[in-house]
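Regression test case RT-17, inverse folding.

Input:
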């Protein structure tokens, strides 16, 4: 994971795609893959196992899928409450691994969006960072759904401010929580301007999908 400060990585959002186009994308150099559903992630894992890549879960994590998620994902970006964090911590311990996680924050305040409230994020980050089998690597958000670019940029800026405050507060285990996963096909330029370290792009790479956007 060694990289220069300010570098932005491209995560390919591959929901609904078969393994074949994902294989092509990995061969072309896209080694960071994001899946929304644990079943899909699990189903494609074997077909991609011979190619070097890293898979992040970027969709909401359900309790009953936690075991498979811990088994098949390299990172879970959507930890949004302490209960699920404790559950995946226990499962990671059972599986003898330490798992990278991000905290998802609902920076836009839209009811349809997952994530913890911005006011909860600092406390949750400290609690998650203290769990033995998890490694808190950063924060994830889905930007405000709006044509108002300034307002969208503010939702990304809020995630950066949360990350910076957590690092400054300095709770044990938070020093590595530097990543900001934010920005999709429609708003990644705004996210990069606000400090994104990972942008999650699907349709701009693979073409339009007849499937609802992120939640
Ligand atoms: C689908 C999805 C993306 C990518 O969306 P595009 O608009 O296709 O770039 C990014 N993040 C999440 C959480 C998604 O579900």
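Golden output:
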């Amino acid at each position: 994971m060694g990289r220069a400060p300010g570098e932005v990585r491209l995560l390919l959002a591959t929901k609904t795609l078969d393994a074949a186009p994902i294989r092509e994308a990995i061969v072309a150099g896209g080694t960071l893959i994001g899946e929304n559903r644990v079943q899909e992630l699990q189903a494609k894992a074997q077909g991609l196992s011979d190619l070097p890549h890293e898979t992040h879960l970027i969709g909401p994590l359900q309790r009953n899928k936690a075991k498979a998620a811990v088994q098949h994902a390299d990172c879970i970006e959507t930890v949004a409450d302490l209960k699920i964090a404790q559950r995946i911590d226990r499962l990671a311990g059972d599986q003898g691994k330490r798992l990278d996680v991000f905290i998802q924050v609902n920076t836009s305040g839209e009811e349809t969006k997952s994530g913890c409230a911005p006011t909860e994020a600092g406390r949750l980050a400290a609690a998650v960072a203290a769990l033995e089998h998890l490694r808190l690597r950063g924060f994830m958000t889905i930007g405000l759904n709006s044509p108002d670019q300034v307002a969208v940029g503010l939702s990304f800026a809020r995630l950066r401010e949360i990350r910076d405050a957590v690092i400054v507060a300095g709770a044990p285990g938070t020093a590595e929580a530097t990543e900001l996963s934010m920005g999709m096909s429609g708003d990644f330029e705004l996210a990069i301007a606000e400090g994104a370290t990972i942008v999650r792009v699907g349709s701009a790479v693979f073409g339009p999908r007849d499937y609802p956007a992120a939640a």
